[in-house]
Design a protein that fits this description.
The structure is a homodimer. Chain A is α/β, with parallel strands linked by helices. In chain A, 43% of the residues lie in helices and 15% in strands. Chain A starts with 7 loop residues before the first helix and ends with a helix. At the A-B interface, helix 1, helix 3, helix 5, helix 6 and helix 9 of A face helix 1, helix 3, helix 5, helix 6 and helix 9 of B.
Amino acid sequence: MNENKISNRSLVTPPSFIRGILKVTENEEVISFAGGLPNPISFPKEALKESTQRVIDTFGSKVFQYASTAGLLPLREGIAARLNEMYEMDITAEEILITTGSQQALDLIGKVLINQDDAVIVEEPGYLGAIQAFSQYQPHFLPIPLENDGMDIRELEQTLKENRVKFAYLVPNYQNPSGVTYSDEKRKEILALARKYDCILVEDDPYGELSFDGKPRGYISAHDLEGSILLGTFSKTVTPGMRLGFMIVRDAKLRKYINTAKEAADLHSNIFSQYIIWDYMMHNPIEAHIAQIRNLYKAQCQTMLSAMAEYFPKEVTFTKPAGGMFIWATLPKGQSAMKLFEKAKAEKVAFVPGNPFYTDGREANTLRLNYTNSSHEMIEEGIIRIGKILTT
Amino acid sequence: MNENKISNRSLVTPPSFIRGILKVTENEEVISFAGGLPNPISFPKEALKESTQRVIDTFGSKVFQYASTAGLLPLREGIAARLNEMYEMDITAEEILITTGSQQALDLIGKVLINQDDAVIVEEPGYLGAIQAFSQYQPHFLPIPLENDGMDIRELEQTLKENRVKFAYLVPNYQNPSGVTYSDEKRKEILALARKYDCILVEDDPYGELSFDGKPRGYISAHDLEGSILLGTFSKTVTPGMRLGFMIVRDAKLRKYINTAKEAADLHSNIFSQYIIWDYMMHNPIEAHIAQIRNLYKAQCQTMLSAMAEYFPKEVTFTKPAGGMFIWATLPKGQSAMKLFEKAKAEKVAFVPGNPFYTDGREANTLRLNYTNSSHEMIEEGIIRIGKILTT
């Protein structure tokens, strides 16, 4: 088909770099730190199986019929109750919209808020799923460099001062790809700046419950929700396969537009799965389940960090995550992570070169390493292989 | 939140008229012909329950993990095999993309093909879910009047001649809202015109398997797929709650863009449900199941048509569907279906006034009646009530 039939929107949307990378990892022999898959222990198989039975037996046809766009009310009430308890928030079920994974929330946000060339702030490096989703609506990206405790506040204020920014997207806890967590001080400053410059704060928190110290950090605007959109998901704590996430939007007018966009996007999210997740939450000790995931990831992360400290040359720096699924490494200036990736491929070990996490698609000297899906032995062996390449 | 923060795209997207209408029908006493819900007998509850067990026991974590954007390969192979057999087509699994209901397919088509002000042909009256999805991308709608055997061919050719049309969207079988089915002759003419004017044909076939005579009519471009996009769904034959539909796109380049848009929209559709639907197809006599739905709807439709013939004044005309879920009635010129709706509300009977099925949002003298979700007694009683209003 002639390319002139394709919308400009689609012509400028980058296909996922990672999906390409992942092809390499299909080879069984390859040790892959490239993906971002939760460890299968995080799927409570038997409990979910019981829930599927129970919801069919209890609700019958309702779990198979069309449903409301906003989502299953009891599930939304359960989410509100849990967040209110964990983070001392005061959200209501009405302010929650169930989405087909957080990815859909990102698409809806771009759709409802971005006019072509609107200024949008993202982290640098930033989550590539968000960069991809927003790109479709052709914004003007304003990347703010990440430091070890969050966005560079000076840059952020300068950028907000000089531009009419539609919204700022950030991942405050154990960010993807960097593993960085925002300090309490920067959280206060960012919230103040967002309010001062009337910039919508879009906070994505897929990893918040995976804090290694078990201490929940929560959302920057948890206690000042006006003008913010908060995202959450069940993908990292129960199952990503059911594609269930949620948005918290206090502003009623904005919520109405998002609801209409959601309706046009898929009418509503899978209601059978919404019943299952809700039933699972009601009948199982989800906190104990999450603690188990948290402890596994903490140990895997520690193994990778120790191996990197031992086998990587000193010039290679890397983050020390307090939770989540990723470590971010930086090679000496001028070195290409893509070239390293090619060499690593030959040694049967994979990671994600930093390139797709920058809106300018630069040739990066950074890389993302995932530790949640490999045994301790494989983590050590994989890091040894990369270390060998780096030291020769 | 200030409206100037909302994208133009969202400002021009109509919220669903029907969702509003449906509020009326929440009242138990109201006889509703307004919805478009499949009859619950179409949900094979027990078989689906068995399938949930089997796929969890057989595939374990795989059914809960992230999956590929295009969808579960065995499911796509099953869809291809079934369509190839039913309609003597020659599609491959590779040409099929699983979507989160057909609604998502409509959104992806608008996203990937429509630039603002692009000319898009729709049926008049047309499916409002499509009008809503496409509206977001701000096309110039070119509605082609529907006759009892399909689009007005003269109007269609004139329109194709005078405009550079990006694509034409139509529902060839038991159309929503009209219940109209395209004649073999018009199918040939439309295919020829689409090819002559290089216009992409988007064919949506949610009701194709619900033909009252059991004879499958299939897609207009079934044997000339280049330059066409075909849609299908499990919503009317197995369950709408799982939100699973599919797109058939032969053109590899177009498929690549749609796949990227799908990835940005929700990464992939619910994989647990994809396994369930596939397992259901493999282990159950789906044809017998569909025949049961078909026969129920045929009888319900007959009851409504007979009642309309008996209780509606002669000046009110209506379609005689050969399948599907809807009858379309036309009041004498100048009469308002919306006013009729208000009076009907008082008599505790509901339907959908024609307004939202026209891209110009006109005050229509037409209405859509759904017969799949009411008992024969309720169908007769509801038509009697509407008839009374029409005759007084």
